[in-house]
């Protein structure tokens, strides 16, 4: 059976469905076709629908069973992958699956073709054994590695393909550590802003205007310095007002996290962190909001000593947000704060504040039926108490699907933290691939 699973994974790995490259479009289409054929073999009704954004990869919709007395579970994964090339430093051809020492290597084995294959065989085996007691639906997108372009609008358009969904299982994450299976219950949201300062109508020479004009970059650096303290505290008025307080139950979830702070410091190349207490550090990354300064568009940034005075500069800033901050409300607080600071400095330059993008946070209920079934299944199969983990990153399509289908989501990790999902020699432990399949079988059997 393991051979059949690895063979299917190998067929998918052989197709470089890299969403970032337009030139790989035909491989993505082939991948979508292959996944659809497979799903039809187990009796699913499958539809490949065009992405609403022209030129973006299609979405695979599939459903199996329509018994209204049974629960209906929707599985989410993606069939596109990150770019990879042997020349990047891979030991093997990234698109020719390599099996070695209990691992499989190849682009997409962990993110996200392995989890997709584990799901497929979990459902297939339950059907073969006559034990599938739920209706199963699938949604597989081909643009996740390119910000899920078009996913929300396309799915919303085809929402009626699915019957009533009771729960959503996200198969697109890894364990937080190496040996502790984990389930994800949260991601942060994001608000991305631009602070634009327009001075002279074009770039100038400092020999000509130095000492003559108020330079746009001075205003921008001043404003960017007014956003945050060195200890991490964000200075925007009202920024923390809606952050949910920590409950005892939530705090307890941090006691079972497999994490090596010293290893992490080594990985970062840092001797000191803002907090040296693991729980505080994880909370600051997972459950507290933050602000980061990313760059200045229009500023001189190459080698050398160009004496330009940029005419227009745009400072790029993002904020990672948590329950119950509203990303659009936070954008407004940012605008108010920067406008207020700008008014204090009496500048002849022109300020414009741009909201570049927003995305919702996700906060799952660790006591709902999916997490309960997952916890039991992991305990039974791995004989280990699962970790409940969050992430500092953002996957806005999860809260989107929860709202669209009015159903709760749960993230089931498949690979390990060292799989190297976007890196060279991406790998997946075969034990995790098979274990993932078994845990999904057990979860579905418990519903
Ligand atoms: Mn992924
Ligand atoms: Mn990825």
Task: Please sum up the structure shown.
By secondary structure, this protein is α+β, with helices and mostly antiparallel strands. It has 13 helices and 18 strands. It is globular.
Protein architecture, described:
This protein has two domains: 2-187 and 361-446, 3-Layer(aba) Sandwich (Aminopeptidase); 189-243 and 289-359, Alpha-Beta Plaits (2-Layer Sandwich), CATH 3.30.70.360. Helices cover 32% and strands 23% of the residues. The chain has helices at residues 2-13, 25-41, 113-128, 151-157, 206-209, 216-224, 248-252, 261-268, 278-286, 327-344, 369-382, 397-405, 430-446, and strands at residues 45-49, 59-64, 72-78, 98-100, 103-105, 135-141, 167-174, 182-187, 189-198, 204-205, 290-297, 308-309, 312-321, 350-359, 362-363, 387-391, 409-415, 427-429. The strands form four sheets. Strands 1, 2, 3, 6, 7, 8, 15, 16 and 17 form a nine-stranded mixed sheet that branches. The chain has a four-stranded antiparallel sheet with strand order 11-13-9-14. The chain has a three-stranded antiparallel sheet with strand order 4-5-18. A hairpin with a 2-residue loop joins strand 4 and strand 5 (103-105). Helix 1 runs antiparallel to helix 3 (113-128), helix 3 (113-128) crosses helix 13 and helix 11 (369-382) packs across helix 13. The chain binds manganese (II) ion (2 copies). One manganese (II) ion (MN) binds next to loops. Residues 78, 111-112, 144, 172 line the site of one manganese (II) ion (MN).
């Amino acid at each position: 059976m393991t051979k059949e699973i690895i063979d299917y994974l190998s067929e998918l790995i052989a197709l470089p469905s890299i969403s970032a490259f337009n030139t790989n479009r035909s491989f993505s289409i082939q991948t979508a076709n292959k996944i659809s054929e497979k799903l039809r073999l187990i009796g699913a009704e499958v539809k490949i629908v065009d992405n609403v954004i022209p030129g973006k990869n299609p979405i695979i919709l599939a459903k199996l069973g329509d018994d209204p007395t049974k629960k209906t579970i929707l599985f989410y994964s993606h069939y596109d992958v990150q770019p990879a090339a042997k020349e990047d430093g891979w030991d093997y051809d990234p698109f020719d699956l390599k099996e070695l020492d209990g691992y499989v290597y190849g682009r997409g084995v962990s993110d996200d073709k392995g989890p997709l294959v584990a799901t497929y065989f979990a459902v297939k085996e339950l059907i073969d054994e006559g034990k599938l007691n739920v209706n199963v639906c699938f949604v597989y997108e081909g643009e996740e590695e390119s910000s899920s372009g078009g996913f929300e609008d396309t799915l919303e358009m085809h929402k009626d393909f699915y019957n009533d969904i009771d729960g959503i299982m996200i198969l697109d994450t890894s364990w937080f550590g190496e040996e502790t299976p984990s389930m994800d219950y949260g991601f942060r949201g994001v608000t991305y802003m631009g602070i634009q300062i327009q001075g002279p109508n074009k770039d100038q020479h400092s020999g000509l205007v130095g000492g003559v004009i108020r330079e746009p970059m001075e205003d921008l650096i001043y404003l960017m310095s007014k956003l945050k303290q060195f200890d991490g505290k964000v200075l925007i008025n009202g920024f923390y007002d809606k952050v949910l307080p920590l409950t005892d139950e939530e705090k307890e979830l941090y006691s079972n996290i497999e994490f090596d702070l010293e290893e992490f410091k080594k990985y970062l190349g840092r001797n000191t962190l803002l907090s040296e207490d693991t729980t505080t550090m994880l909370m600051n990354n997972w459950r507290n909001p933050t602000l980061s300064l990313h760059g200045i568009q229009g500023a001189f940034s190459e080698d050398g000593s160009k004496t330009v005075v940029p005419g227009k500069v745009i400072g790029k800033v993002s904020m990672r947000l948590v329950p119950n901050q509203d990303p659009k409300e936070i954008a407004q607080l940012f605008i108010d704060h920067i406008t207020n600071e700008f008014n204090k400095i009496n500048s002849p330059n022109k300020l414009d504040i741009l909201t570049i993008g927003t995305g919702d946070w996700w906060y799952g209920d660790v006591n709902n039926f999916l997490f309960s079934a997952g916890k039991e299944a992991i305990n039974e199969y791995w004989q280990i108490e699962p970790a409940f983990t969050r992430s500092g990153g953002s996957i806005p399509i999860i809260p989107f699907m929860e709202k669209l289908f009015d159903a709760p989501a749960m993230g089931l990790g498949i690979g390990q933290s060292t799989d190297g999902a976007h890196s060279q020699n991406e790998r997946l432990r075969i034990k995790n691939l098979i274990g993932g399949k078994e845990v999904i079988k057990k979860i579905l059997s418990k519903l």
